[in-house]
Amino acid sequence: MKVNIKLIATDMDGTLFNDKKEFPPSFDEKMSLLKEKGITFIAASGRSYPKQKEVFQKYIDDIYFICDNGALVKHQNNTIFTNTMDMSCVREIIKECEKIDGIFMIFCGLKGVWQKETPPEFKQHITSYYDTYHLIKDYSEIDDEILKIAICDLNGSANNSFKILEPIFGKNYSMAVSGAVWMDIMKKGVNKGLALKFLQQKLNISKSETMVFGDFYNDIEMLENSEYSFVMENANDDMKQFGKYIAPSNNDDGVMKMIEKYVL
């Protein structure tokens, strides 16, 4: 069954990429065919733009980037949408986070990523996503507008830092568990779905012409803004209620197979 799709948005880790962080083997071929058909492709991630740009360098002029869980949208190196946090709010969050053992904070801003020296026990989790940053000794040195505070939690984000911080900040900030050891804090209302809706309006593309792929809780709002919403087979079982369809696993090229089946 072929459907009339004009926009495809996909999460990256656990969705488009396999567990080794590799592109699907047929990605180049499929991207060429989508470009021929005039279909817009969006890479939507909790990652910041510098890392997304590095990964998708070959396609930098062809695709849109939803970055930092929807706080930033980029196209051809131009910023077309942004939603930053008030610095007084950032300082308030820092104060509470410093009370929690086993976490490491990363600050994603318009000028780049800001962080202290990475402790050895966190490096395996952080370097895949944040390998270029402004090194600071004190959080007061941050000189930027902050899009997102990323928290790496070695005790498990869903059961530790999120449970501690959500009762304090949940009413006034957007908070998302974005991975087994990751959670993100953004300005209230910020999420991938808001950024996707902005692009749909900008490009005059409807929900019924949109296909979305995701696997984790920070993809929920984006999935809800698509008529053709796919949750990956490898997702947690409680995530699968948020998609109209189930795509094969990220390790089985699920995104490419569904694009081939429904679009190409």
Would you give an account of this structure?
This protein is α/β, with parallel strands linked by helices and 264 residues long. It folds into 2 domains: 7-82 and 190-262, 3-Layer(aba) Sandwich (Rossmann fold); 87-187, Hypothetical Protein, Haloacid Dehalogenase-like Hydrolase, Chain: A, domain 2 (2-Layer Sandwich). The protein has helices at residues 12-16, 27-36, 49-55, 87-97, 123-126, 161-169, 192-203, 220-224, 254-262; strands at residues 7-11, 40-44, 64-67, 72-75, 78-82, 103-109, 112-115, 134-135, 146-153, 173-179, 182-187, 210-214, 228-232, 245-247. The strands form 2 sheets. It has an 8-stranded mixed beta sheet with strand order 5-4-3-2-1-12-13-14, sandwiched between helices. A 6-stranded mixed beta sheet has the order 8-7-6-9-11-10, covered by helices on one side. Strand 6 (103-109) and strand 7 form a beta hairpin. The longest helix is centred in the last third of the chain and has 12 residues, at 192-203. The chain is globular, with a radius of gyration of 18 Å. The relative contact order is 0.18. The mean pLDDT is 94.
